[in-house]
Amino acid sequence: MKTFGVLLVLCAALAMTTAMAQPSATALKPIIDQQTALRAELAKGIEGITPRQARIIDKAQAEFFAIVKGRQSLDELGIEEKIRVENALETINAQFASTPFAADDQQVCWREVKVGSKMMVTRCASKKELEDGTQEARAAFNRPRICVPPGCGQ
């Protein structure tokens, strides 16, 4: 039963990636059908999925279904909605990956203003990369800003 769920999520992620890459394959129905089947399997219980993971998957699926409700293709979604759909599917996929580092490898995308302009750009990184960047920024912020001997470059 766990294998079925993992295959279902991986197929959904693959279908989403393929649909976003190829304009002719933008139908949402296969992805919605896969997520509906996965939701039914989760309701019965999937071996190896903890209640916490099931809640995370349910929350991500709720967001996914809210975004795609009444839509027939990915072309009907705006860039922000496409990013949210991709993040929701990545969250679901990360919960099914059976490695302890699956959540760290989960890709997260966001939109931000490009420095020095008003253009919006889409950036993606793994959760591990985001956490590393946050730790580096905190370390830089906590370093002394004045030179105190020894160690002033002397």
Commentary on this structure:
The chain is mainly α. It has a domain at 2-103. The protein is built from 6 helices and 2 strands; from the N terminus they run αααααββα. A two-stranded antiparallel sheet has the order 1-2. The protein is flat and about 65 Å long. The model is unreliable at 1-24 (pLDDT under 50).
What distinguishing features does this structure have?
mainly alpha, two-stranded antiparallel sheet, disordered N terminus, 154 residues, 6 helices, flat
Structural class estimated from helices and strands? mainly alpha
Largest sheet strand order = 1-2
Q: Which range best describes the helical content: under 10%, 10-25%, 25-40%, 40-55%, 55-70% or over 70%? A: 55-70%
- Based on Cα principal axes, name the global outline: flat
Mean pLDDT: 78
- Distance from first to last alpha carbon: 65 Å
- Uncertain parts: 1-24
Q: Give me the number of helical elements.
A: 6
- Computed over alpha carbons, the radius of gyration is 20 Å
Order of helices and strands: HHHHHEEH
| Number of strand elements | 2
Percent of sequence in beta strands: 5-15%
| Main sheet record | 2 strands, antiparallel
